[in-house]
Design brief:
The chain is mainly alpha-helical. Among the domains are: 295 residues, no CATH class; 58 residues. Helix content is 69%, strand content 7%. It contains 18 helices and 5 strands. The protein has a 3-stranded antiparallel β-sheet with strand order 1-3-4. A two-stranded antiparallel ribbon has the order 2-5. A hairpin with an 8-residue loop joins strand 3 and strand 4. Helix 1 crosses helix 6. The protein is rod-shaped, with a radius of gyration of 59 Å.
Length: 640
Amino acid sequence: MGNNKRNKRAVWNDDFYGPGNEDEYESQSRDDRTQIENEGENSSNRQIHPAANVMDGEAGFNLKSYTDNVQAAIRAINTVQEKFQTLNDCFVKQVQDIEMVPEIHQQLTELQIQCASKDTTITKQQSTIEVLHGMRQESEAKLAKRKAKIEEEESALEREKKEQGEKIKKAEKSIEAKKAEIKYELEKEYKKREVEQNKAHMSRMEQLENKSKKQGDEQRKKLRGLENENKNLSENVERKQNKVTELEKQLEIAKEKYEMMETAATSYKKQAEDLKTKLEETGNEFEMTSMPADFYKDMFENIWKDIEKTSRQYFKDLPAKVTENLEEIQKQLISNDSCFNSIPISDSETSQNLRVAHAQRIISSALYTNIWQPFSCEKLTSSPTTAEILIEICTELAKSEHSGSKGRAAIVWKVLTLRALQSIEPSNAAAPPQGISQPSKRENQAVQAIHKKLSPLIARDQETKIQEALHRIAQSAVEVWTQAQTDELKLTAFLNLDLSKRSAWRSPQFYPLKSAGDKMSEADINPSTRPRVFTLFPRIIAHSLSTKTDASVNISSSVSKQQQEFAATEADIHQGVGLAESSDLVMNGKSEKEEGEAFVRLAAENAMKEIARGGKRNSVRSRTGSMVEFVSGPKAADVK
């Protein structure tokens, strides 16, 4: 307990007198207390000794000793008054220290003004540091609370200062009153005793001794009370000073935190700008075109319409060379495409529609095979093995263990690879048809494949027009596929149609829907060895990656991290167009073909019989006439 008091007194002395004056103050205090005690003891001795002298004999009595005692008491009172003056100086020093509080308050106000200025600057930053704005507001709220608390404590200190000043004034007045009272009583008693000295000296001395002793006890008691009160006031002042020191430390800590927040905000801003710059550079380096799905829907729909128009315009009617050499033309068609084996070659409506449908199938198949393939470009036209290797690489990159973004890496790699291949594409040396711009290898290959299969049905006078029309279709197919391969959308062409979406891909011209309850047969849905649906136009599917962003800002870290996940979605660009083998058109064509073959067999049998009868030349003419009659004959049988 004593050590705590000494420590508190040492802190109080450092605060009011400075670290170097503590020993001097302690020494002075001890000297003052020793002087007061010695004077009190001397006064008592002086008061006691004269009484003893008087008791020894009245002959040696002298008033000087009594006067000395009174003067010693007055000096003691003066000493006490000086001590109170010293105490008053201490309080004045304390008041001066308390007056420093407004200066601290002014510093706090300046800091708040700086905070407001910094807040205005911070609010102009990007949204990635908006969370710092909330932290700054929280800090301002804390500072405001601390400011209010400091103001409250300042008011409390002011009130305590006034109370302590009033107590000191009251104590001084009380001491002055006591001093005047004691002096008055002593003087009165002195005069009274001086008059009655000779009459009752012994009795008077006893009364003075008792009274002096009693007064000394009262004074010592009052002095102890004042010392205790002074001690309590000192402890109270020390506690208040400790509170002020603690508040100053808290204010300094708050200031450091604000500076750290300001530094962090500047750092976050710089990092955000760097990340934005890097993102823009990366975006420019790996930029991909991003056309809407409707753009490709319109493009492929236009190509399909061109195919419909061209096939109906040039392959619906039979040219003259077909009717002149029907058997040879039919053999060539079957040799070029086995699907013509079940198609009758005649001028009937069924035959015309089947020729148009299969012309559409052959054109679309040629576009699919030569153009609408992965990594389709001029550089790889003569190197299909390289294209297959690139497809394998892209497929491997699209796997989840190699790409955490669900195919994003594969798409970027594919686009960059195709850009590089397109930039080194060789020039075409082949001469284009008249009126057509310089065709690419893929256009030529597609047109040649179409011409190879359909050449028996092409009239010589229309061959140039058909070539031009096919080149236009192939050119459109190349352009849209070149655009699609460098797009974020991954377009894929399929010759196999989705049997569950028959109503979407069935041809309204060749395969109309009979009724709402029309269902595909079990044989159509589950084919055995040969295809059940003729694909007149392939199915085009778009695979896209939808981005899901999870931005999380970690204040304790130096950089805000943003993670991206990609979800693959699939959409139909074109459902395709198909003609089921079970459709009425195909079935009618087979029936017409079988009837024609039966007619040929019957004509052959009749011819053999006529030959046997010796009419060989007539039978040959009859056979030729029968064949021509077959070409134009079964038209009525197709109408149902």
